[in-house]
Amino acid sequence: MPRRHMSxxxxxxxxxxxxxxxxxxxxxxxxxPDGKPKVKTIKAKTKTECLxxxxxxxxxxxRYGHALDVKTTLGEQAERWLAVKxxxxxxxxxxxxxxxxxxxxxxxxxxxxxxxTYAKLQGILNGMRAHGRAGVETGPAGTVAREQLRTTLRxxxxxxxxxxxxxxxxxxxLKINVxxxxxxxxxxxxxxxxxxxxxxxxxxxxxxxxxxxxxRMWFRLLTGMRQGEIIGAVEKDLRLFxxxxxxxxxxxxxxxxxxxxxxxxxxxxxxxxxxTETREAKVRVGEYRVNWQLKNVPRxxxxxxxxxxxxxxxxxxxxxxxxxxxxxxxxxxxxxVHGGLCLVxxxxxxxxxxxIIPMLANVLDTYLLEMSDVPNPHGLLFRHDDxxxxxxxxxxxxxxxxxxxxxxxxxxxxxHETRNSVVTLLxxxxxxxxxIQEIVRHSDVKMTEHYxxxxxxxxxxxxxxxxxxxxxxGIDWKP
Length: 479
Hints:
Family: Belongs to the 'phage' integrase family.
InterPro entries: DNA_brk_join_enz, Integrase-like_cat_sf, Integrase_catalytic, Integrase_recombinase_N, Tyrosine_recombinase_XerCD
GO molecular function: DNA binding
Keywords: DNA recombination, DNA-binding
Protein name: Integrase
Structural class: alpha+beta
């Protein structure tokens, strides 16, 4: 039973142990399963320090109903957090989190959570170093890596607060500070969207490939979709149809003009001149529903483990386990396609509609006819002649080749920049930024302020402006 003063107030008392004198106070912090009091002992060299720590503990109990945890280390909390994330995020994201914890925070994993202050965490973030493939330091970390570490810290400490191990989150408000060296390096490596002229050159080059390979490149250039969504496009999710629209046409019209002849006499006559009229026309258009993306998904052990943590199946590699399971977040739909390649639900909301403009719809009509006799066991839109999927590596190599044939250095661009190029081109044609956001399905908060929902017809009209901005009429496709 904790010792109390005669007045009934709990106070520290002086005691001695092993020849060492100190002040001690025992605080009841709860009840054990058997109903007996759970007591925490506070020891200090002076009565003042002992009283201070006692009052802090009593304040915690009054506020939270129990004492905060001062023993749990950052490493212990991080492992609990990673265990949750393991089933909550895709494998590549989990691997990034794991690197942040075990590589960039390794030096501090032994320290108790209670020791971390805002200043200490800001210092860790400021001192972050980049590492090469072999784990060797290569200099100061860049902005993206620092943002990933900040997110990791914020979520780990938020979990500790939710579990009532800490009173507040010291990672809130951390700032990304990069030095001149990093800023210069990132400026030099910054990649810009393709220009309109570069987009036109790539469309022309792709047409020379023939429709089997070129259609996939046009699909990338003219939809702004992500690579995994393109190579994982499912044929039944593509709908091509005829639609009526108003198109400008040039016609000859008689125009009355006044002129002066050679004798200086003013005369009136009629001449045929070009005029632009808007007429209703039938055009081939379409839409694609983004329901799947193709990803290389790892597999892990599904068998029980021994007390030492070894899998009972006898295999070290999880993919060989007879009970192997796919490593995907809970709730993710998955269809195995070929080896580790699987169709999984996309990054953005399933069922998003991407408009297909007339110039692309016509190419896709030709492509579907050309591919009608090609096996398609997985229902893929783009595939090899044996029906197998096109891998990310193959698609990247094809796009690099397309850039080289178009006079573009692949070292200065990536295929993902076609998404930014679609944004740039649509914006240059006066399309509303909120509508662009919906077409390319960005999640940037800055682009979704005052967000509004647009109908399919409105999205298609916007995408038709992309065709207007490209001078690619009359391209002859190689048979």
